[in-house]
Design a protein that fits this description.
Its cofactor is K(+); Mg(2+). The protein has about 525 residues and is of the alpha/beta class. It contains 19 helices and 19 strands. It has 2 domains: about 220 residues, 3-Layer(aba) Sandwich (Rossmann fold), CATH 3.40.50.10260; about 260 residues, Ribokinase (UDP-N-acetylmuramoyl-L-alanine:D-glutamate ligase, 3-Layer(aba) Sandwich), CATH 3.40.1190. Strands 8-1-10-19-18-17-16-15-14-11-12-13 form a 12-stranded mixed sheet, with helices on both faces. The C terminus is likely disordered. Bound molecules: ligand NAX, adenosine-5'-diphosphate (ADP) and potassium ion.
Length: about 525
């Protein structure tokens, strides 16, 4: 499990550790780790550190101190290091170390700074770290834009300046790094978009914080975690014991959603998939998936004819008319876990009572669906995804899987689970239907809502990557790639770990080309 923490949690742990160490020890550990990563990146880019050009942007706090000390270490190895002192103050000892090592430092001056940034092989962003609050003030905001246009490799110190370390929120200008070197432990904002997208590849430097860290704020499953959690058939398994998932989806108008949700479920490791829905989507499901057991429904109350299931998926393509509402009520009246997606969420926004039941509920909204459920504008959800995923879990009393470029799984009293395995190629109609089928299958296989949602998000992301491999995909391709995704985890074969190489990223490419 990869764990991450808020700024306050990190500060408290640092204080406890610092009390046992001589002053300055932690900053030296941080700077040494930062300089080592920079040296490696310079060697990749220029062949060696000696003679390379490095620009250090130093703000007025300890983040600037880390950057200046790292700059000193690079200068001692022969790099030409120029520091831009951007704050009203500067970390004096760090500055003195840089100058002693042969580096040069000047106050920020727009034209000169732009000139040296244009020629830099590597830029170290030490403007603000976990002490940053709110939108970057000038001249930092202007500098962040300038850095993003610079051709060199951009390395953020601890967090990219302008990204809220505790939430991933970005209010205004922010540095877009190729690599973020973070100290002691991951910060939550490095895993949640838009912060995660600004961080690039994240490298953690151990400064000895481990024993002082509290329970994490958020967590991300690794490939090994998913392998451990996935239900696996044994010698005594049969199709019923492996779990049966029911799919209540599709309508006369929306037939594809039913086909795709069943497709995701069939690859999710259950023993059987039952489909129940109107005659037209039922016919499509039957012809596309002979493996599914199909019950065409004339009336919603006929849902019991579909047979016993261990979990239901409700909503993709269901429509929002009275027939759909009646079907939703019938499914929710059962005593098994229900995953609610798409139109079921639109219905729930109008009929909140649908969410009140004794058995578990997992909802899988995108930002627009959650906006309707909570009655807040979509843009606010997108800007504060972590806060709203948590708020929804608390307010609605359900498990929430909030879809997007990073997917969040929130449940009351548990750390939010973050998934970054996906790819922007997944932004295609119908991929969400595949996800709901897959997550429903894992629920039926016996996983809790929290585990089913986070494993499904992980696998769906990897399946998207496997299917796409850099080319456009259709939702059906994602369903078909699920077995290959599982296999790649089991073989530990090139599976990107969340928050490290989990997103398309190449050191040395201009930040604006990322993603
Ligand atoms: N505390 C520790 O033990 C360690 C801290 N380290 C470094 O120290 C950093 C935290 O240092 P600080 O607490 O000094 O804080 P920072 O250096 O992150 O930021 C605080 C400074 O930035 C300014 N600032 C804050 N928000 C701003 C905004 N929106 N626009 C412009 N300026 C803004 C503040 O006025 C203050 O001068 C960490 O991120 C890490 O890099 C590391 O050296 C490891 C050890
Ligand atoms: N930019 C992105 N990067 C990675 N994954 C994405 C991105 N945009 C969307 N996705 C994923 O694609 C899926 C889209 O689901 P959804 O919005 O429900 O679409 P649909 O309703 O058409 O199936 C979700 O799993 C979501 O997390
Ligand atoms: K920074």
């Amino acid at each position: 499990m990869r764990t991450a923490y808020t700024s306050d949690q990190i500060r408290a742990a640092e204080a406890a550790l610092m009390a046992r160490l001589p002053e300055g020890t932690l900053m030296q550990r941080a700077a040494a780790g930062l300089a080592a990563v920079c040296a490696r990146l310079l060697t990749d880019r220029c062949g060696r550190v000696y003679g390379s050009r490095v620009v250090v942007l130093a703000g007025s706090g300890d983040n600037g101190g880390d950057a200046l000390y790292a700059g000193a270490r690079l200068a001692r190895r022969g790099a030409a290091v120029r520091a831009v002192l951007a704050g009203s103050r500067v970390h004096r000892e760090g500055l003195a170390a840089l100058v002693r090592a042969g580096g040069r430092a000047d106050p920020y001056a727009a034209d000169e700074t732009r000139r040296i940034l244009d020629r830099a092989d590597l830029v170290v962003d030490g403007l603000v770290g976990i002490g940053g609050a709110g939108a970057l003030r000038e001249p930092y905001a202007e500098l962040a834009d300038m850095v993003n246009d610079a051709p060199g490799t951009i390395v953020a110190v601890d967090v990219p300046s302008g990204v809220d370390a505790s939430t991933g929120r970005v209010a205004g200008a922010a540095v877009r790094a190729h690599v973020t070197v973070t100290f002691g432990a991951y910060k939550t904002g490095l895993l949640v978009d838009p912060g995660a997208e600004h961080a690039g590849a994240v490298e953690a430097v151990d400064i000895g914080l481990g024993p002082y860290l509290p329970d994490p704020d958020v967590a991300a499953l690794t490939a090994a975690d998913v392998v451990d959690l996935l239900p696996r058939p044994r010698a005594e398994s049969d199709k019923y014991r492996r779990g049966v998932v029911g799919i209540a989806a599709g309508s006369e108008r929306f037939t594809g959603a039913a086909v795709l949700a069943v497709g995701g479920a069939l690859r999710g490791g259950v023993g059987m998939v039952r489909y129940a829905g109107p005659a037209t989507p039922a016919a499509y499901v039957r012809s596309r998936w002979p493996e599914a057991v199909v019950t065409p429904l004339e009336h919603a109350r006929d849902i019991t004819r579909a047979g016993r299931v261990q979990a239901w998926v409700l909503g993709p393509g269901l429509g929002t008319d009275d027939t759909a509402l009646e079907l939703a009520r019938s499914v929710l009246a059962s005593d098994v876990p229900v995953l609610m997606d798409a139109d079921a969420l639109t219905l729930a926004a109008a009929h909140r009572r649908l969410l009140h039941r004794d058995a578990p509920v997992l909802i899988t909204p995108h930002a627009g669906e959650l906006a309707r459920l909570l009655g807040v504008p979509r843009e606010r959800i997108e800007a504060e995804r972590l806060e709203y995923a948590r708020a929804a879990a608390a307010e609605l009393g359900v498990t929430v899987l909030l879809k997007g470029s990073t997917t969040l799984v929130a449940e009351q009293h548990r750390p939010v689970r973050i998934n970054t395995t996906g790819t922007p190629w997944l932004a295609a109609a119908g991929t969400g239907d595949v996800l709901s089928g897959l997550a429903g299958a894992l629920l039926a296989g016996g996983l809790s809502c929290y585990d089913a949602a986070s494993c499904a998000a992980y696998l769906h992301g990897v399946a998207g990557r496997v299917a796409a491999s850099g080319a456009p995909i259709a939702a059906g391709d994602v369903a078909e790639a699920i077995p290959a995704a599982v296999r790649s985890l089991v073989q530990q074969d090139g599976v990107p770990e969340p928050g490290t190489t989990g997103r398309p990223h190449q050191v040395g490419t201009p930040a604006k080309l990322k993603g």
